[in-house]
Specification:
Length: about 280
């Protein structure tokens, strides 16, 4: 069975496999519990189209229902990550839309970020070269970001007469690097080089360009081999606790941890520890 973006193949509660997923706007590969999503327009620095936004949103939504993907690597073909929305295929047409049409588009782009944050698998962005505009948001919406010294990240929205508050940037970026540094980037639209991005905490790690993808896949492999139910719960709580007070957060974490203690992985870890073995997690 082959799945295509937009098809209602995942009913609520369905647990299925996604290894044979096919996309039109990017490359998709799944093996050994790891999915790799590659933006694949290297001649244009991998810009996004209307269709790419839709396919990516649908893919990340569907990942909540799959059993054969435990971690995701997001990257770009060639020597760049993503240059943002395609100037000719998105920016030009947007100048001809009325306000309802524009709002439909901005909600679509925001839905992609929501889908990335809601999918239970950790997402690692492997970022080389240009990472700009909506591309910078894709990196920001990921759980981990690996970059290179030659990578250049920019939230370009003010440079084209738009606000810096695009796709959740004004809430996600300050939480990652701090309010003052976020203001610097969102007002100026300037480029952040790899070393500064790591120093500011935007990147988790700097890698050599030739090992970037393998380094990201190594982390994905380590995560996929871990207690994936617990990883999904960690991701969910990191998201939900933004809007909680301390007392609410402590209670929410008590409930989340109790659920994790009921999993087989928790029991496997205990028995492995008692036997002085390394636990083998299965995600249940």
């Amino acid at each position: 069975m082959r799945y295509r973006s937009g098809e209602p193949h995942n009913l609520p509660g369905t647990r299925t496999k996604l290894a044979d997923y096919q996309a039109r706007e990017f490359l998709f590969e799944a093996s050994n519990k790891i999915a790799t999503v590659t933006l694949n327009r290297p001649d244009r620095k991998n810009p996004l189209t209307f269709e790419a936004y839709t396919e990516l949103r649908d893919l990340f939504r569907s990942l909540a229902h799959v059993v054969d993907v435990k971690a995701i690597v997001l990257t770009g073909a060639g020597d760049n990550f993503c240059s943002g929305g395609d100037v000719h295929e998105i920016i030009g047409p947007l100048t001809k839309l009325d306000v309802p049409g524009l709002l439909a588009f901005t909600r679509l782009t925001g839905d992609l970020v929501k889908a990335m944050r809601a999918c239970p698998q950790p997402i690692i962005s492997a970022i080389d070269g240009v990472c700009a505009g909506a591309g910078a948001i894709l990196a920001l919406a990921s759980d981990f970001r690996f970059g290179t010294t030659r990578s250049r990240t920019a939230f370009l929205f003010t440079r084209v007469g738009l606000a810096g508050c695009d796709m959740g940037a004004c809430t996600l970026l300050p939480r990652l690097i701090g309010q003052g540094r976020a203001a610097d980037l969102l007002y100026s639209g300037r480029f952040l080089d790899g070393e500064e991005a790591e120093r500011w905490g935007f990147y988790n790690r700097l890698c050599a360009p030739e090992t970037l993808l393998s380094d990201a896949r190594k982390l994905a492999h380590d995560l996929a081999a871990g207690p994936t139910f617990a990883h999904a719960m960690t991701k969910r709580m990191l998201q939900q606790e933004w809007n909680m007070g301390v007392d609410e957060a402590i209670e929410a974490e008590a409930q989340a941890q109790a659920l994790c203690m009921a999993t087989n992985d928790f029991h496997r870890a205990y028995h492995a520890f008692a036997a002085k073995h390394v636990p083998v997690f299965e995600g249940d």
